[in-house]
Model the fold of this input.
Amino acid sequence: YTAGAILSMAFNQPVPAMDGNLCRVFGRLWQLDWDMAQSGPREALAAVLTPYWEAARPGDANQALMDLASSVCTVNNPFCEICPLARFCQAKQQGTTANFPVRKKKKASPVVQVATAVLCQDGRCLVAKRGAKGLLSGLWEFISAEGESPEAALANLEQLLGALGLEWEKRASFGRIKHVFTHRVWELQVFRLTPAVDLPEPAGCAWVPLAALDATYLMAGPHRKIAAWVKGEPC
Done:
């Protein structure tokens, strides 16, 4: 949208400014069964519209359509009786303006249970680096494990710690965090573990001074919050 607006209004280039206003006007005009919240349908509509912008004053065309959408072809209760496009509008003719533009319901994001261990000794905390691919790739985090339930996540965490040769003698709840990503939700239960002995540094992990948490060792959002808890900073 921004690129189209600048190119048409500042440089007189025949490019539509694809914002929600244009999507609404043409979605109703042609009764497009496209989910305009998605980039693919917006790009397809832009490709259809671009030839119509092969004329003088493309910036004025964009501005006129934006004004039309904001004052006449409104989201709710559009003023079709005064719309200059009413006689061409398929949604107006069929009384379906309320159905356009199409907004398909989003699927509920899956909730992933995560158990996280905060292990500290000698002013350092143990963190692990995520893999090179996938969610939050390359970032650091406190030792964590996922599960279908909080109990399963904790059991998986204990199994992971054992496999890494990490022993502890005391476990205390450190708090809970809910973190929403685009396509999933993390619900973290965070535990503070007291090491039983001097712990090793497993492969892929590092003992990091408190000051270096999320400074030298960059961390994802929920783990930044845990780091702030550990350092006694406001979250």
In short: The beta strands are 111-121, 124-129, 140-147, 168-180, 185-195, 205-209. The longest strand covers residues 168-180.
